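My main concern about presentation is that the manuscript never shows what a single data entry looks like. The format is easy to grasp once an entry is in front of the reader. For illustration, here is how one protein appears when written out as sequence plus structure tokens:
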Amino acid sequence: MSAALATAALTAGLATAVAVPAHADGGVQTCTASWYGAPGEIAPGSTTANGEVFDAEAMAAASPDLPFGTQVRVTNTDNGQSVTVRINDRGPTDPSRCIDLTRGAFSRIADTDKGLTEVTLEVVDN
């Protein structure tokens, strides 16, 4: 293998291994996702940060910084399952987590009994 080809392969490998923040302008982030909306956790009729009535089964999520309405592909790094959610709330409050999925969205990619899962986030539309 030529030195140039080896350098290119190494550079490509490193580029895919380094996660960058998922921002409205694109990029991928690897982080910990949680879920919210367990029965009894949120009062009926409660609203999300953008004013919508909370729906635990909606394909929606809370983000600390992505704009409301942003569509994000969330992929479980353990099993490859993914779901696309719309940001309509703020959170999570735990700084070790990057996104808080509704129960419905989380259940599409992981067992809700697990509570947390490692994911990649990719903005697909803002």
Remarks:
- Confidence is low (pLDDT under 50) at residues 1-21.
- The first strand starts at residue 28 and ends at 36.
- Helices lie at 3-17, 103-109.
